[in-house]
Hints:
By secondary structure, the chain is α+β, with helices and mostly antiparallel strands.
Amino acid sequence: FRILAANAELCEEKGKIAKKFGIHITNSNAFAKEYRAAAEKVLGSSGTFHVIAVPPNSPAGAAGIQEGDVLLSANGAPLPSGETALKELMSQMADFANKGETVVFRVRRKGVEHDAPATPAKVCDYAYGIAQKSEVNAFADGKSVQITSGMMRFAGTDEELATVVGHELAHNLMGHI
């Protein structure tokens, strides 16, 4: 997130810009059916949304949202439910972010509820992920940046890994696919 936000100006010049809160959530319905019972034991009921990652210095992090929080509502509206609830919620959050408006997330942490207002930040609109491959490599395809699990183990520090991510992001921005 830090790299995508730091390079937003360059991405905006290329028309690859988005607004994001920097919050990653899931629920048990996001898992394959054979894993849902296990996911529900860890996450709770299928309708519960759990924060699984909050990048440092992201709008969600600045609002006080933390990994492990349970997301209860956004701007006072109940969250979607059912089989496609996560996809619907992600779409709603993208709509909120694109408007650039502050969203008040209601979260529960250790039984205590609180409001966390977050205003989306401009970031480069490239997906990123980890490819489960042992080789030490990273690649860009014009739409995303992928780092292999071998590279994750090879990098000695977060800064070294950030250099690799930044390098791959530059490939996308320069059209070096």
